[in-house]
């Protein structure tokens, strides 16, 4: 692999893990604070403590990367800052301001065109908070709607109802910067589970036919709103989520749609949105290039360095991933160690991934997108031998897969939307072929 002399840092992720309650599908590192008044009064103390530690982490990481190792990493004007969670909009705006000011004072360059995104949940912000965001130059909102249906929201253990969703959208429409929703992304979840035999009295009975009908209504609603961006995620049952850990589907309480039904829903969703939106990534739709986000695509590149701060956050630096502890207490202990020894950061990263893993990450990320992969990037980074091995496998796959597009022995992409459904399979076959060839060459 041909390494560059220096690696640029142009994107930052800030994890604010606090939420009112944990949704049943959520497997992310979050810290639920509750919804009653007493919980809220205690929350300010929690916020102040978390703010103290995340600021310390930013300072110590800056010392470690750009003073001790400035021959490897250099700062460039920031393309994006992303506040994710959790529910970042629960965090006091004054504390958000402190974080942004610290990023500036530590020598990161926030420009007029830096995209600053705030994830928001309905019911956690009002007009005054949105105005504060505007003053902080936050210029993009990711709104966690998930569904416009009360049954679905309740069964997912979302903290809001449909009315709260509509009120949140109206707040944005009444604002100065977000009134046209062009710089707003709406999150929706498709392929919801059936709930017909739940013993939990808080869950409402719903069958798969009704789930599909509700999904059609959700799509119709979001088309009418015309936000600049839509993210649509197919519900997955991940370890660490309530759906997985509590019920584990042992009693058939929450059966998901079959793979065939889920695939049909994916295609129908594309057909519904494609007259207005560009389906530019498996889970993402954008109205125009002007609404294209800057932050998420760095993950799809597969090999771009970025910094992440906060509990459970994960940075990628020179092909190594650095993930913070996933509980508040352990995260604070981590930062204490970092204060004593800034190199503790680099000492606790995952091992540098091997060439196969790196290429697999690049393939998986870029084939998720409509743009696909320029294999010249592989050739320039990993050499002609590996490039030829991959091209050879692609030629074999072209004989049996109608969903691959390969142009000029260089550009590889998947047909949209059907090709997106086989993305994992395509990547797995190329990766397996590469593994066999690399091992065979090593053993000669």
Q: How would you describe the overall organization of this protein?
A:
Belongs to the anaerobic coproporphyrinogen-III oxidase family. HemW subfamily. This protein has 444 residues and is α/β, with parallel strands linked by helices. The chain has two domains: 295 residues, Aldolase class I (TIM Barrel, Alpha-Beta Barrel); 89 residues. Helix content is 43%, strand content 19%. The chain contains 15 helices and 16 strands. A nine-stranded mixed beta sheet has the order 9-10-8-7-6-5-4-1-11. A three-stranded antiparallel beta sheet has the order 14-16-15. α1 packs parallel to α2, α12 packs antiparallel against α15 and α13 packs antiparallel against α14.
Short synopsis of the structure:
The protein is an alpha/beta fold.
Radius of gyration: 23 Å
What is the CATH domain class of the largest domain?
Alpha Beta
Strand percentage lies at 15-25%
Percentage of residues assigned to helices: 40-55%
Span between N and C termini? Answer: 20 Å
How is the main sheet built?
Answer: 9 strands, mixed
What would you call the shape? globular
User: Given the structure, what is the number of helices?
Assistant: 15
> Numbering strands along the chain, what is their spatial order in the largest sheet?
9-10-8-7-6-5-4-1-11
Which CATH architecture of the largest domain would you pick? Alpha-Beta Barrel
Whole-number average pLDDT? 91
CATH topology of the largest domain: TIM Barrel
Can you say what the CATH homologous superfamily of the largest domain is? Answer: Aldolase class I
Work out the count of structural domains: 2
**Low-confidence parts lasting 5 or more residues at pLDDT below 50?**
none
Q: Provide the structure class.
A: alpha/beta
Q: What is the tally of beta strands?
A: 16
GO cellular component, one term: cytoplasm
Pfam family, one: Radical_SAM
Domain Radical SAM core: 4-276
InterPro entries: Coproporphyrinogen-III_oxidase (IPR034505), Elp3/MiaA/NifB-like_rSAM (IPR006638), HemW-like (IPR004559), rSAM (IPR007197), rSAM_horseshoe (IPR023404), rSAM_sf (IPR058240)
């Amino acid at each position: 692999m041909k390494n560059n002399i220096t690696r640029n840092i142009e994107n930052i992720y800030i994890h604010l893990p606090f939420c009112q309650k944990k949704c049943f599908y959520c497997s992310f590192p979050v810290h639920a604070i509750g919804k009653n008044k007493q919980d809220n009064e205690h929350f300010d103390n929690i916020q102040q403590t978390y703010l103290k530690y995340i600021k310390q982490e930013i300072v110590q990481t800056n010392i470690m990367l750009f003073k001790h190792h400035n021959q490897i990493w250099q700062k460039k004007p920031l393309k994006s800052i992303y506040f994710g969670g959790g529910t970042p909009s629960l965090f006091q705006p004054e504390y958000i301001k402190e974080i942004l000011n610290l990023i500036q004072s530590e020598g990161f360059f926030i420009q007029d065109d830096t995209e600053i995104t705030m994830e928001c949940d309905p019911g956690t912000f009002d007009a005054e908070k949105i105005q504060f965001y505007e003053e902080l130059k936050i210029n993009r909102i990711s709104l966690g709607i998930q569904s416009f249906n009360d049954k679905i929201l309740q069964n997912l253990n979302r903290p809001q109802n449909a009315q709260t969703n509509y009120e949140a959208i109206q707040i944005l429409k009444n604002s100065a910067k977000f009134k046209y929703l062009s710089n707003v992304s709406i999150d929706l979840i498709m392929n919801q589970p059936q709930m017909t035999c739940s013993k939990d009295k808080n869950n409402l009975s719903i069958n798969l036919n009704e789930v599909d009908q509700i999904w059609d209504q959700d799509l119709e609603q979001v088309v009418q709103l015309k936000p600049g961006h839509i993210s649509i995620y197919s519900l997955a049952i991940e370890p660490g989520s309530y759906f997985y850990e509590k019920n584990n589907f042992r009693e058939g309480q929450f059966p998901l749609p079959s793979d065939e039904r889920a695939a049909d829903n994916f295609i129908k969703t594309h057909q519904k949105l494609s007259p207005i939106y560009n389906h530019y990534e498996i889970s993402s739709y954008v109205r125009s290039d002007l609404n294209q986000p800057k932050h998420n695509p760095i993950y799809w590149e597969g090999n771009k360095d970025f910094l992440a701060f906060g509990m459970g956050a994960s940075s990628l630096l020179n092909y190594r991933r650095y993930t913070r502890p996933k509980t508040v207490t352990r995260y604070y202990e981590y930062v204490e160690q970092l204060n004593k020894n800034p190199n503790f950061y680099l000492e606790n990263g995952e091992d540098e991934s091997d060439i196969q893993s790196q290429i697999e990450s690049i393939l998986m990320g870029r084939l998720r997108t409509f743009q696909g992969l320029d294999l010249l990037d592989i050739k320039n980074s990993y050499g002609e031998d590996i490039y030829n091995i991959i091209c050879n496998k692609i030629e074999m796959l072209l004989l049996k897969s109608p969903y691959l597009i390969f142009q000029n022995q260089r550009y590889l992409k998947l047909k949209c939307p059907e090709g997106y459904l086989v993305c994992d399979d395509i990547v797995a076959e190329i990766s397996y072929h590469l593994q066999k060839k690399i091992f065979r060459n090593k053993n000669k």
